[in-house]
Each structure stands twice: as structure tokens, then as C-alpha cells.
């Protein structure tokens, strides 16, 4: 239909409703609004539970809608502007305590009152059909305006939540453990008692909404809460729950799929979000040092990169190497440390190690098993041997400085 045809149709509709009928509807508009509110109170149990100020807000929207309906009958070309205006004048927090479904219920009740009372205000018989048609057209616009209003509110809340989430993740990365960080996370739905683990890596694209969708869809499949932030080319994800073991590994593997090319580092799991900065610190340090291990798996735990992190000057990595490698061996007696040190010096040849120590090869085997039990590192494994050698070296430096 052309614009001219539409204009002719609207003009015809306007002139076919007499001025007398329009004046009668205008005089009855207050009563229609009151009747609509009364019907809402009678038919909708949840409406009566609203506080007085919220019911007054609904009444304001209803009265504005009725007044705009009268104005629209006089000029139907203003329908979209007038219906949207009814919701624009409503309190900004209306959508917070009245859902879209409830709003549509309110609209339905008001429509019933309009269809019941308006035709009786027609001065002439043929105007009754015109009024019924006008009600249908106008209420359709009202429904679309309501949906548009709620969509805009949802987008605004989503944008605010995204900014709030970015602040939370940035605070975790910077090491803030303030109460405000925890309260913001709680506002986003994070369980304060949930465990937290940090993943860092390269963002898969420069489109944050796409990244958010990819991360959240994968998190939903494994059933874990997430907080995320895109910081330039870097993506930081904090996920909760999952604990240890196979469940955590599956979660990490699934979330790692949302990252771009390059390494993905997993920090240690912390008991709560308040301590997640430790996981973030380890993960960030490991991400900077992972370039020194070209064959590192993806994702790689930050604890597997302790030697590279220590070489890069991370004091936390040095501390962990001393605590995980040196102190257990020292507490168990000097024989274990001497054995693993000699074993590594002779290139992992058991017999040569036994000769150097003047002991039986079985004694060396026993001691190496004890080393594996105490440190979690098997000296015969190339990567573990590298970690053990680095740990012993860092331990000697620390001892020389009097740190242990």
C-alpha cells in the first residue's frame, strides 16, 4: 500500500468518527482509566500485592495510554509516537518490578475494558465497528511499544552488567580484595562461597559480544558460572565450581575452546572469589613466560610453568619451587636431594648415579620413587627433570640469600 493510500485511509477513518463521539470518548477517558485499574485489581492477584507507589505508576501509564488513544483517534498518524510516549513517561524502574508478561496482562485487561465500554460511546451505529477496529490497531501498537520499552531496558541492564563485570574481573587481575568487588560480583549472581579459577589467553576476535556469547554458551553446557572481560587482545575468564579432578579438566578444556590462537593458561583454583587474585596473578605470570616453552600443552596449568616464570623473575614462582621441591626433599634428609641432584647431573643414567653415590642401583630407584612421592615430579620424565633441576637451583640461590 502506498503512503498516499495509507494517508487517505487514515484521513477517512478520522472523519468517519464524528466530533460528537470524539468529545464523548474524551470526557469518558478518566472513567475508562479508572475502570481499567479496577479490573486489574479484581483479575490480577499479583497487582494487589504491589506497593502503592508502583500501582500509582501503572495507573499513570494507563491514564496516559487512554489520553493518547483519544489523541490518536483524532490523528491516527501519531500512533507510534503516542503509544511509545506512554511508556517513556513511566518511571525508569517500572520494568524492574513488573515483568513483560505481567505488562501484557495489564494491557489485555485494559483492552477488555475498552472493547466493553467504548462502542457504547458511539454517536452513530456505524461508528461502533470503527471504534472496535481502532481499539485493535491501537492496542497492537501498545503491545509493540511495551516490548520495545522492555527490550531497551534489557539492553541498558545488559550494558551495565557488562561494565560491572569488567570492573570485577579487572579488580581480580589487579589484586583487589575489597568488599566492593565481592558485592559487585554478588550483584551479577556470583555465589560468594564458590571456588574460583582464572583462565587467560588471546581473545578470539575484536568483537566483544561474540566473545561473550562463545564463553557463556560453553559455560552453560558444563554448568558453571563465569565472569569475563576482554582487555585489548587478552581474554580473562573466571569460572566457579567444578572443584578438582576430571570435572574441572572438562570445564577448562571446554572454556579454552572459546579463546583465540595461542596459549591458554589456567591459574590454581582458589576457595573463593576473594582469593581469586592469586589465581589471576599466577595465570598472568605464566602467560608472559609460556613463550619459553614452545611445546606447552593448551591449556596449560600455571604451576607447570614454574621454571619459566622463575627465569622471568617471578618471585612467587621461586617461592613455589622452594616449597614444592626443595623443602620436602630437605625435610626428608640430605640423601634424597643428593640423589636427585646426582641423577640429573649424570643425564638420568641409573647405574652411573649409583656409582657416583657408592650405593646399589636399587637404592637409587627407591630414593627416586620417594622424590616422586614428595614432590609430584618423576626424575625420569624430561619435563619433571627440568622442574626439579630448576627448583634445586632456585633453592640454592634462596639459601644463599638466607631465605630458608
TrEMBL record:
Pfam families referenced in this protein's UniProt entry, alphabetically: GGDEF_2, HTH_30
InterPro entries from the UniProt entry: CdaR-like_regulators, CdaR_GGDEF, PucR_C-HTH_dom, PucR_C-HTH_sf
Superkingdom, taxonomy of origin: Bacteria
Protein name: Helix-turn-helix domain-containing protein
Residue ranges of every copy of the CdaR GGDEF-like domain listed in the record: 175-289
Similarity section: Belongs to the CdaR family.
Membrane-spanning ranges: none
Domain annotation PucR C-terminal helix-turn-helix: ranges: 336-393
Amino acid at each position: 500500500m502506498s503512503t498516499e493510500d495509507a494517508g487517505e485511509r487514515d484521513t477517512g477513518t478520522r472523519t468517519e468518527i464524528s466530533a460528537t463521539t470524539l468529545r464523548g470518548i474524551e470526557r469518558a477517558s478518566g472513567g475508562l482509566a479508572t475502570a481499567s485499574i479496577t479490573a486489574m485489581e479484581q483479575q490480577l492477584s499479583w497487582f494487589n500485592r504491589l506497593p502503592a507507589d508502583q500501582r500509582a505508576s501503572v495507573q499513570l501509564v494507563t491514564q496516559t495510554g487512554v489520553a493518547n488513544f483519544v489523541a490518536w483517534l483524532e490523528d491516527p498518524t501519531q500512533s507510534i509516537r503516542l503509544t511509545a510516549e506512554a511508556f517513556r513517561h513511566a518511571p525508569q524502574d517500572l520494568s524492574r518490578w513488573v515483568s513483560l508478561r505481567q505488562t501484557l496482562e495489564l494491557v489485555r485487561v485494559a483492552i477488555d475494558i475498552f472493547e466493553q465500554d467504548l462502542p457504547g460511546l458511539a454517536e452513530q451505529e456505524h461508528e461502533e465497528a470503527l471504534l472496535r477496529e481502532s481499539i485493535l490497531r491501537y492496542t497492537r501498537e501498545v503491545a509493540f511499544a511495551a516490548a520495545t520499552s522492555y527490550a531497551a531496558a534489557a539492553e541498558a541492564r545488559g550494558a551495565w552488567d557488562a561494565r560491572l563485570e569488567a570492573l570485577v574481573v579487572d579488580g581480580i587481575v589487579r589484586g583487589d580484595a575489597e568488599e566492593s568487588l565481592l558485592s559487585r560480583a554478588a550483584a551479577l549472581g556470583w555465589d560468594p562461597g564458590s571456588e574460583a579459577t582464572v583462565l587467560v589467553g588471546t581473545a578470539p576476535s575484536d568483537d566483544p559480544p561474540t566473545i561473550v556469547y562463545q564463553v557463556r554458551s560453553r559455560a552453560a553446557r558444563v554448568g558453571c558460572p563465569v565472569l569475563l572481560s576482554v582487555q585489548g587482545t587478552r581474554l580473562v575468564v573466571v569460572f566457579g565450581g567444578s572443584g578438582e579432578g576430571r570435572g574441572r579438566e572438562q570445564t577448562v578444556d571446554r572454556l579454552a575452546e572459546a579463546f583465540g590462537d595461542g596459549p591458554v593458561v589456567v591459574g590454581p583454583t582458589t576457595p573463593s572469589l576473594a582469593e581469586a587474585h592469586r589465581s589471576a596473578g599466577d595465570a598472568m605470570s605464566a602467560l608472559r613466560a609460556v613463550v619459553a616453552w614452545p611445546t606447552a600443552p593448551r591449556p596449560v596449568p600455571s604451576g607447570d610453568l614454574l621454571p619459566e616464570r622463575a627465569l622471568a623473575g617471578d618471585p612467587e614462582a621461586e617461592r613455589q619451587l622452594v616449597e614444592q621441591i626443595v623443602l620436602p626433599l630437605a625435610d626428608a634428609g640430605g640423601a634424597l636431594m643428593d640423589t636427585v641432584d646426582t641423577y640429573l647431573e649424570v643425564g638420568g643414567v641409573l647405574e652411573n648415579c649409583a656409582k657416583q653415590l657408592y650405593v646399589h642401583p636399587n637404592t637409587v630407584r627407591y630414593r627416586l620413587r620417594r622424590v616422586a612421592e614428595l614432590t609430584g615430579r618423576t626424575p625420569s620424565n624430561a619435563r619433571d627433570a627440568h622442574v626439579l633441576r630448576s627448583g634445586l637451583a632456585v633453592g640454592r640461590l634462596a639459601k644463599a640469600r638466607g631465605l630458608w
